[in-house]
Amino acid sequence: MDGAQQLKEVVPLLTRLIDRITPEQYDAPTPCTTFTVAGVLEHMVAGATAYAPVFRGEAAPAGPDLEGDVRVRWRSAMADLLSAVHADGAQERTVQAPFGEVPGAVFARFVAFDGLVHGWDLARATGQEYAPREELVAAVDSFARQALAPQMRDGDTFKNETEAGEAATPMERLAAFSGRAL
Hints:
Layout: H1 3-19, H2 37-55, H3 70-85, E1 94-97, E2 100-103, H4 104-126, H5 134-147, H6 170-177
Antiparallel strand pairs: 1-2
């Protein structure tokens, strides 16, 4: 399963979660300790807004639009990102990722990893069920364990892996691998 396919599956999972988030939950803390619920959403909007043009071979904009409900802006940003990831040449194009230049196909997998884990963050913070397909989690986990370079564990991009425990689900193990405390 390539990164574009992974994103095509991750975005609807996230959409279902985000549709059930209320504005009263925006200030709730998340397992991604630097972000509240609204902060995770804004982070994802900013990322999608910056990355969509890059996948199309265009310059990234100065920043995302910060006006209006973040859930509405999230939907628009994700629709644009999905379109861009599936655009002609997007997977073959070399893109400038936050951690250096990589093929679009590789970066799409990083974006899927980020989205899948942030979905877990949002679900935990808002008391929602989150059950991505095991095959999706396995594919993202396999990629992440191969691709996550030690220098990316800087405490900002990713924290050090935490202990998941024997009873952890595959999604919880992936979250722990990304540095989340369970």
